[in-house]
Amino acid sequence: SDPATAVDLRIVKVFASWCLGCKAFDTRYRKLANQHRAPDSQLYGGYNRVRFAEIEFGSNEPLCRELGATRMPFVLIYRAGDSYDEHREGFVCPPREIDRVREAINRQMYMYGDGMD
Across residues 68-82, what is the average pLDDT? Predict the structure, then answer.
């Protein structure tokens, strides 16, 4: 596939509309996502190597519970081709710990030889 459009990682934020910590986390999460979305991004070899998504807990509670997301905000990390129930990492991530998401992205990319120096 074309490396300019390859998607290697998917980062999924699980949040609840009533969760104050989720609201604070959202701003930081979107900033991180925007760093990866920029067409001129050189992160991990180029544009779109990491994609970001979100799931609202209240309207998807059975799925969220199945994925282990019972405290919010929760982050799931997938490699391209993983099924929904085979995430590589999953963890609660308070807003002040957004660097845990960056570290997990680096860790997953490094495992496959695409990490940052």
Answer: 91
